[in-house]
Amino acid sequence: LHDGDVGAADVPGPRACPAAAAAAPAAAAPAVVDPRVDEDARRRRESARRRAPQMAQPVRRKPKVTQKATLKLNSKGLTTAGKVAGALGVGVDVVRRALAALGSEQRRRDADLDGDTAELVAMEIGRTLEVVRAVKAARVVKDSVEEVDAKAALLRAETLEREASDAFEKAASQYPSGDDWSALPLRPPTVAVLGHVDHGKTTLLDALRGTSTEEAGGITQSLSAFTVGSTTFLDTPGHAAFTAMRQASTHAVDCGVVVVAADDGVMPQTQEAVKQCRDAQASIIVCVTKCDVCDVKEDDLRLQLLEQCGLATEKDGGDAPLVRVSAKNNDLDELRTTLELVAEVSDLRADPSARARGAVLDVSSDAKSGLTVDGVVRWGTLRKGDVIVCGDWHGKIRSVVGDPLGAQTKEAGPGAPVRFSAALSSEGGGPLEGQFVVVEDAATARSVASLRGRAIQARRSAAEARSVADRVAVSVDDEEEETQVLRPPVVLKVATDAEAKACEAALQALPSQRAVADIIKCDVGAVTPSDVELASTFDAPIFAFNVGASGSVREACRRREVPYTRHDIVYSLVDDVAAYLSSKLPPDRISKDVARAEVLQLFTLNNGSTVIGCRIVEGTFPASAGVRVARSGEVIETDARGVASLRRVKDVVSEVAKGLECGVGLHSSEVSGLVKEGDVLEAFVVEERPADLGGGGNVT
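The structure corresponding to this sequence follows.
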């Protein structure tokens, strides 16, 4: 063989080169192989070679993706066990068992669950739950016609109010300044006694003026003004319903005596009193009463005032004096001295010869004298025959009482409390409140009042336009259904304007989830035949506060079947209205557990019904009870119709006492089929109670 030649031994037979095979010596004859068989073997080897790398690698499987469940809460952030089960795709019993494992007592299908509990239930079951907390809101479509109209109406109302205020000040007597002010004579201070209910305000004032006041219910329910020496005092009510009445007193106050009982400390109306004095820019004196009842912990009280009211006394670096008094022991010298010092520092002056300006405290009305206004003169002198303006009201004064508790006079000077009757008319139906001023003539009064009336009407139009714009708002949570609130009509009659506001505020403070009093009329004065006619038309009762009705009016109420009640205590009025609202609602149905029975054995009768053999372990089991089936401490089903038959041996009985055995047949065959030996039957009865205004009681 030469170099470069390939021997036959180097190449296997099927791959031997033909030329080399011819050159090689024929030592022996090769075996004959069918070419087709050889080709098949080659193909199998090639196929095996191609598959070998793939078979060596591990099989990669796609991970199983678990779909996340989603649950949307309602606008209150709550859901139910049934909805949780539906979102997770499991039965309600599974959710109930998870709740039991979590220690929750809310296991009924319709029981309210919060979002956190729903997520914990999903984790307990081994699922993933995404909770969507709905936010109920409203958005107004941009540049809608209603929104543009509402903004334009509000702008017009604000413009007219500014014009009316400017016209009012221009028509009133002007205050001097500089040297002219210092040349004016001093005027008596006006002091409002404010504080929480039953903290001793009226007792303190009785001690100052040497009187004894008897009040209905033992609480102050009206605003009164009187003079002690040279100082005008205002006695204010402390009940929460009389906020508007206390606010009216601050329009006429120079100094506020905030009364705090030593045995009670700072209370909600104490905080309100401090805020009202600050809003009126009046001096504040803290007066601690009932010091003869208990020891005063002055450091604790000052800390309460600082933390809860933001008021620093003089000992704490502030400007509010703190005095201690005992009205029963007539220990009031410190208070009198402090009032004199505050009045001296305040430098209160007025011009007795100027046209009067003052503040309205309260308004009453009767058929004989018409409108009667209680107020305080702040500047000038108020005289009979003066023309006054108060809001959109204007007219001439017919008579003046220098002191509401005194005799009729012809005038009232600066700082004096005053009661006057006047022939007043309104240009816009607004309230008779705030400041009053004496103007030059009737034409000026009509012009100023007319402008204020236009402003009041514009403000009402703006409120209506805003209401329309809100009604066309698009709700974000369209699925949430709003609860229907019942609105029974009522007619309310009171003695004064201030009492009207107080009674309305007290009724509005009642729980309003299910029913709200629709006050179709709230008027000052005695009950009239027209009130009875209105109440009869609307099927409404008449509630009177500190006013009465004549015999003919009461007879008209009986004839037309119009309920009429009279009250002189605000608590009584509120309770009576609440009872009326409750009577208009369906009674609440409350379930009460009465007995428990242990299941001993089950018997199947010929007709296929099941009798549950039990032993009473708690209470007395009645034949009229509903039944819950409990297993391992968890209620699994309820039969509201309950017991169909109750037997002792063979006798039908109405009830079975504790410790006895009996046979119980249920109305629901499905519930009977679920009962097993060892279960517990919980017997309950449903009681009806007057409806709760704060939220209905349902069978649980």
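DSSP finds 18 helices and 35 strands in the chain.
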